């Protein structure tokens, strides 16, 4: 069965990026991202790929772009979110950003893995609101990062079952 999980780190205002980069340096979140996604396909927007700059090892990298000529070694392309979802049929895949792709993928995702960074940054890219009629918080782990001097939490949200007809 296909399982689509959105994985994202956001600040207190749902900010996720500034100038096509991450607003914070949080090594514990990088390690969490690697641990959770390794061995699974990852799906991202072309701008997020540009921001990372290379395919991430140990994962099938799928980049969504409208440009039919866009190519990069070690990367598969998809021309829409639906086309990317079709490429990962039957697998447990992760949608890793950015804002444009998250907005579209909220309609098809089963699960959200959110790192809440407990600080506010001057972001120019944002995650959409999480509608509590559609999503329920399933788990929460609170942490503190001594190296980054930041509080953060790993939170899992699951899609609410559709109401009986
Ligand atoms: P995205 O990474 O979402 O990429 C947008 C691009 O994806 C578009 O320009 C287009 O590529 C392609 N695209 C989007 N929708 C479609 C579609 N329906 N069909 C085909 N192609 C499509 O860009 P954003 O600017 O929204 O987000 C980037 C920001 O997010 C950065 O600041 C980054 O650092 C941040 N980020 C933060 C994360 C976090 O967890 N905090 C994680 C990931 C990113 P093209 O122009 O080539 O056609």
Radius of gyration: 16 Å
CATH class: Alpha Beta
**What molecules are bound to this protein?**
NADPH dihydro-nicotinamide-adenine-dinucleotide phosphate
Instruction: Please report the number of helical segments.
Output: 4
Which CATH-level-2 architecture? 3-Layer(aba) Sandwich
Amino-to-carboxy terminus distance:
24 Å
Order of helices and strands: EEHEHEEHEHEEEE
Shape: globular
Major sheet summary line: 8 strands, mixed
Task: Name the CATH homologous superfamily.
Answer: Dihydrofolate Reductase, subunit A
Low-confidence stretches: none
Write out the strand line-up for the largest beta sheet, numbering strands in chain order. 5-4-3-6-1-7-10-9
Assembly type of the chains comes to single chain
Strand content: 25-35%
Mean pLDDT: 96
Helix content: 10-25%
Q: Would you count the extended β strands for me?
A: 10
> Which structural class matches the secondary elements?
alpha/beta
CATH topology: Dihydrofolate Reductase, subunit A
Number of separate structural domains: 1
């Amino acid at each position: 069965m296909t399982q689509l999980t959105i994985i994202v780190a956001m600040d207190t205002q749902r900010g996720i990026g500034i100038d096509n980069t991450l607003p914070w340096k949080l090594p514990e979140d990088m390690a969490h991202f690697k641990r959770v996604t390794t061995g699974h396909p990852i799906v991202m927007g072309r701008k997020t790929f540009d921001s990372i700059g290379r395919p991430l090892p140990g994962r099938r990298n799928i980049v969504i772009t409208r440009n039919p000529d866009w190519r990069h070694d070690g990367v598969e392309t998809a021309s829409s979110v639906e086309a990317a979802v079709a490429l990962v049929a039957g697998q447990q895949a992760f949608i890793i950003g950015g804002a444009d792709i998250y907005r579209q993928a909220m309609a098809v995702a089963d699960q959200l893995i959110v790192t809440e960074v407990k600080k506010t940054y001057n972001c120019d890219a944002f995650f959409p609101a999480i509608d509590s009629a559609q999503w329920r918080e399933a788990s929460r782990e609170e942490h503190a990062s001594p190296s980054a001097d930041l509080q953060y939490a790993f939170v899992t949200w699951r899609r609410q079952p559709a109401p009986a007809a």
